[in-house]
Amino acid sequence: MSRVQCPRCLRPKTHCLCPLIPRLDSRTRILLLQHPSEVNHALNTARLAALGLNNAELIVGEVFDDLPKLLNCPGYQARLLFPAEDAQPLQAYSSAPDEQPLLLVVPDGTWRKARKLLHLNPLLAALPRVTLAAGAVSRYRLRKAPGPGALSTVEAIVQALQTLEAPTSFEPLLKPFEALIDGQIEAMGEEVFQRNHGEGKA
């Protein structure tokens, strides 16, 4: 028998995260393009980010037919948050009154699935790319990061916004994410967690 699910955060009602999800304003607009395989993932952090930001939109799919319309957002300049040799590191907005904020397009999925989204949507792949500062450490303690700087989607968005809109803090966006991880550790038991994921574990 399946557990009753919260229709908003998609967590079981007994573990609903909605009370922890903030409603934050941002100058930057966030467009999350989520691969369908991520929708029912236990840590659907893209959904947490979209729920916590007033100026964010989450769209699920593989081919986005309305991408031209989504990217044509008056008052914003579209950038893809994805690594590339020519990607520009994100920098704080200047104080120039005519500077356009970013429409930050964030693919959500494994690296392989995210690359597939770019392959299937040439308009997406053609966007100028931006990257985060190197050296960030993920708080996702349940999985060994595939490499340095590998962050969950919500962590990447928080770091991007903290950089662009400094000194504004977007840390409250991470509260439901951390509660989710704590809940999973609690469910598996501390002993199992330490054995599989504890400090010093490869």
TrEMBL record:
GO biological process: one example: tRNA processing
Protein name (record): tRNA-uridine aminocarboxypropyltransferase
Organism this protein belongs to: Pseudomonas chlororaphis
Family that this chain belongs to: Belongs to the TDD superfamily. DTWD2 family.
Domain DTW: 2-189
Keyword field contains S-adenosyl-L-methionine: yes
Keyword 4Fe-4S: no
The enzyme's E.C. designation: 2.5.1.25
GO MF entry, a single one: tRNA-uridine aminocarboxypropyltransferase activity
Pfam families cross-referenced by the UniProt entry: DTW
